[in-house]
User: Fold this.
Amino acid sequence: MAVESLTAPRRFAGAHVQAALVGVAVAVVIATLSVSRHLLPGVFNDDGAYLALGRALANGDGYRSTYLAGAPLQVKFPPGFPALLAVFWRVGHTPGAVQTIATAINILACGIAAALFWWIGRERLRLPATIVALFVAAPFVLESAIQYFTLVLSEPLFMLAMAVAFVLVDRRDRRTTTNAVTLGAVLAISVFLRTQGIALVGAILLALALDRARRREFAIVAAASIVPLAAWQAYLSAASRHGSLATQASESSYMSFLAGGGTRFVSREVAVVTGNALDYLHLLGGYVSSSASVGLALAVVLALLAIVGAVLLFRVSAALGLALIANGVMLLAWPAYQDRYLIPMLPLAGLAAGFACHVGLQWLARGVNASTLARWESVAAAAALAMILLRQHDVRREVDVARATGKAPSVSTPSFWLQGNAWFVDATARWTIKSTSRADKIAVVSPAGLWLYTDRQTVPMEVVEPRGAPSVFDVAGRYLASQIANQKVTIVLVESPSGITAREVVALRSACPAALEKLDEFSGIAAWRAKADDPCIAALEKRLSPSS
Assistant:
C-alpha cells in the first residue's frame, strides 16, 4: 500500500474517545505501579535540585542553587519546572506536600500526553489500534518510565508539551495567528522544561520553513518561541557577570559538557556517539526481553524501524520526522549518558517505528486480502504487547528478588536503587540535624536531598561528567582538596568504604594527616571533620590543580 493511501481524508470513529480511555488507563497504571512517589522527596538528587530551586523562587531568593555552598546562580536546569514548583511550595510548604502535588501533575501529564500521541497515531497516521498500543502507549508504562515519571522531574510535562506541539503544527484546517502564537509558546515552554526542547524547536521551525505556504506562520512561531528563550539567556548572561557560578562538573552549564575543539572534539564525539548508541540499545533491549542477545536484536530492529519511519513520515508530517531525527541526534551526541534521557523520546520513536512497520507489512502483503492482513497484524501486535507487559512484570519481580538476595537485577530500574537512596538521605539528614550547625558545609553524594531536610549547604561528591573527558576524580584527593580549600567544606560524609568519597578521604589523609578528623560512624556511614584553614590542604590543592 502506498504511503499516500494511509493518509486519505477519512476519520476513525471514536478516535477521541479511544484517546481519552488510553490516557486514563496510562495514568491509572502509572499511579498504581509507582514506587518512587511513595519515597522521600529528593532521593534522586535532580528531583531534590528542582525542589530546592522551586523553594528558592518561592522564598524570593532568586534562581540560585541554595543547596550548594555559596548559593551560586543556577545555569544548568531550565527555569520552567522550578517556577511551577515555586507555586506548589506556596501551597504545600513542605517537601512531601510539594512532591504529592507535583507527582499528581506528572501522572496527569503522562495520561494527557499518551492520549495525544494515541490520537496522532490513529487520526493522523491512520495506524491500527494494536500497533499504536504496542509502539506508542507501551513506552509510557515501562517499569523504569513509571518510576521516573513519578519523581519530581520534568519529563512528563516535556512529553506533554511535545505532544501538544505536534497536534498544533499539523492543524491544517486552522492555520491562524492564534494557533501559530500558541505553537510558538508551547515550543518555548518545552525548552524551559528541558534543554532537549531545543531539538524540538529547531525541527518544527525547519518543517514550517520547508513549506512555502506556511512562511508567515513560520515567522510568527519563530518569534513566539525564540524571543522568550533569548530573553532568558540575556538574563542569565547579565546575572552571571554579577554572581557566582557553580564550579562542580554536574552543576555547571550543559554547554560546558561540549567544551573542546578541533580534532580532539571530533574524536571524542565519535566515541560519545558510538558509546551512547550501544548503551541505549542495550538499555532498550533490557526493557523488552530477559535475554541480552534477544533484547539487543529487538532493540536494533526497533531502532531501524524508527529510522525508516522518520523518513517515511516526511510524506505525512515533516514535523514528526524532523523532530525524531533532531532528538535522536541530540541524544546520541550528548556527552552525558543517563537511562532517563531515552524515555521521553520513546513515544515519538514509537510513532515512527509503528508507521514503518505498518507500511512495510502493507507493502510485503500486497496480494493478501486486506481484512485478513489487518486481522493477523492486530494479533501479532497484541501478542508482542502482551510479551512486553509481561517483561515489565518480570522486571518488578527481579527487583524484589534482588532486594532479598543483594544481587542486582538485569535492568537497572529506579525501583531497585531509589529505596537505598532514600535510606541514605534519611540517615544522613537525621545525623546532620543532631551533630552539625547551620554554618557547616557538607560534602556528600546527595547534596540537594540533604539540604531539603537540614538547610545545610553542600558540595556534591558524585558528579555527572562528559563521556570521554578527564574526570575530576582522576587524581585521588584532588577534588575533595579543592572543595575544602575553595568552598570551605567542614564535614565530609562517606557513603561506603568502597565509594569514591572514601578514596578521596584516604588520599587526603595520606597527604595531610591533620586535615581530617573522624567525628562519628552511623549506619555504616563515616563522618569526618575537615579543617578548611589547614595550610596543607591549600598547598595540596594548588599542587594537584590541573592548571599547575
User: Anything to note?
Assistant: The chain is about 65% helix and 5% strand. The chain has two domains: 15-242+255-405, 436-544.
